[in-house]
């Protein structure tokens, strides 16, 4: 029977158990036609992989060991990916851009889609963002719902210009934005994005810019001068911008404003790719004999979610341990801080959760470990950032002296002198009997 | 096998740098920040301290011009000069005599105003220990890759800075606050600028890494004001900030000027006091630190080279599955006061404790002296 690997993968899915962090590897005979020619490893979009076995019937395991190891590292974690999760504890200069790009682990994220129309007189731009979010973004976020809470909103901004004037290129008769002017594009727009009214969670902004008629078509140039295929760029820990060029009819008598219906599929392909990068879900380069299955509209394979969870769990555990340690050091330094009951219970809960997370990690139960680490982070942050722990509210010893000494010292001087006089008289009185009236 | 990967050993893993040596060198000199924040504090009130508000507003203006948005600036002004009843030109705050430059502008957003500028609020902003009801504009939501600029101005002395004429913050408290920020990785790099008398004493006690500090005068020196305006009747700016503002007016978002130029800004001939700076806690060489690393907001960008492929037909199929109407829950007023928490806590038993030794001893002393002086036989006459 000849079936393709995706069908086989889907058929075998119910047999696997499929819990978070698990990995199933099937080894098939070398001559099987399940995998196309030249491909020896197939990585499915769930949690399984298929490996072509060795030609000889010898000890299969030792021969495929290296390949299995490589697959395991691709589909779960490597020492580098774990170390990258701890990037804020590592000194500057040792890490690449990959570690700075993704957002830190947080309990929620806010995603905002904005349509920028600087020229409403010429373009009447409509975009069906609700349907696009429902159809493309929401499945992706649903898969990530275990990781954090997401809220999505959208807005349209009129007369929002980019901060940079594009150059006109005579050869292609189009306008170009060079790579080194891109950093200055974001700032003038950011003030109008309204992210200050958004939630306390980190905000991801995705902007779709429709250039003015006078500056159409607008392309982005990369560092080598070539045009960027996606016409988009992103900024680490902030979001992404895509430039959407509108085709103007050749005849000038088309009535203005020109109605533009944005092709949401093209736009969402880019935005979802940027969203993946901003969450740190990136594909490491694989050798040619590896074939990856396309995850489809969900945009995320199950094992990529696992990779994210491994890294996030480690990051959470590290955060909790440093938070609690520094809280303990603070209490050592300022001895008279009062810990309220609820702060104390949060600390106990954080410690219990992080110990549980470590146990679950050691046992390999990823889902429970991540859940425990998330609870630990919530509790430890609540304990550390409790408003009552401000050291100003508690009198340090030197301030106690500073307040009471000016009060009591003047009063104490005559008292002490009189006391001295009393003692002297009493001693003299012991030597000779006093005459009483 | 992969299960041998000892998860608990992640904490002692050393990194293998995967970068080519050339990239590594470049990365090392460039700052690793992804966003910028600014906390600008003016601590003096009263009309004659007009110049401190003008100082802070000029730095605010430069920082906004170079790209940091209002949502990333925490501006604390202890008094309102623009709408002060003694201001002959209402709604303006000038920084140049002859009213050349109005730094108040049209779009100033003051986050902490008037009596809200206290040492407690300032430390709460820095350490993040803010009550949950605080709006987002009053919070410093920085992360481990934020570069923060902290500018403080007002009246100060050796080791302290006066807030609102009623309280002060000491250099030890400030250093501890920065250490709390470092422990929680609330900053990547921090630039601290202070324009007060004896300003250098405020940065003497810092001990957290990645802090660079500038002050307008050394210990024992006074920072002087620049020029009075005869129309408004007060001194408009302090010298140090005046020359810093002149220097910053030349900077644009793409400029490559570095920190060494900022250190030279106000020599003794112009400023009368000697500005000082401290860079020993900073990891990078000031030569490689751009002014826009702190005063501006130049974002790192990457070109998006990959896309994922979406199938529009699948999407239509998925969205056709009927989704139930999301029942919107009735809106209710958000809890401002954690009543449940307060009620839950048992009332503390206020036990009666006998008076302590100190009080007893004091009273015994007083009574003994009294009776010794007046004699015990007079007691029946007195009581």
TrEMBL record, chain A:
Any single Pfam family the record assigns to this protein: PIG-S
GO cellular component: GPI-anchor transamidase complex
Biological process, per Gene Ontology: attachment of GPI anchor to protein; GPI anchor biosynthetic process
Pathway of action: Glycolipid biosynthesis; glycosylphosphatidylinositol-anchor biosynthesis
Key words of the record: Endoplasmic reticulum, Glycoprotein, GPI-anchor biosynthesis, Membrane, Transmembrane, Transmembrane helix
Transmembrane stretches, start-end: 401-423
Membrane topology field: Multi-pass membrane protein
InterPro entries: PtdIno-glycan_biosynth_class_S
Compartment(s) where it occurs, according to its Swiss-Prot or TrEMBL record: Endoplasmic reticulum membrane
PANTHER family (alphabetical): GPI TRANSAMIDASE COMPONENT PIG-S
Family note: Belongs to the PIGS family.
This protein's name: GPI transamidase component PIG-S
Species the sequence originates in: Alligator mississippiensis (American alligator)
TrEMBL record, chain B:
Domain of life: Eukaryota
Pfam families (UniProt xref): Peptidase_C13 (PF01650)
TM annotation in the entry: 352-371
Keyword Transmembrane helix: yes
Active-site residue numbers: 155, 197 (nucleophile)
GO terms for biological process, alphabetical: attachment of GPI anchor to protein; GPI anchor biosynthetic process; proteolysis
GO molecular function: GPI-anchor transamidase activity
Classification via Gene3D superfamilies: 3.40.50.1460
Pathway it works in: Glycolipid biosynthesis; glycosylphosphatidylinositol-anchor biosynthesis
Keywords, comma-separated and alphabetical: GPI-anchor biosynthesis, Membrane, Signal, Transmembrane, Transmembrane helix
GO cellular component, one term: GPI-anchor transamidase complex
Database matches in PANTHER family: GPI-ANCHOR TRANSAMIDASE
UniProt record similarity statement: Belongs to the peptidase C13 family.
Subunit structure: Heteropentamer. Part of the GPI-anchor transamidase complex, consisting of PIGK, PIGT, PIGS, PIGU and GAA1. Interacts with GPAA1. Interacts with PIGT; this interaction, via a disulfide link, stabilizes the expression of GAA1 and PIGK and links them to PIGS.
Protein name: GPI-anchor transamidase
Species name: Alligator mississippiensis (American alligator)
Gene giving rise to this polypeptide: PIGK
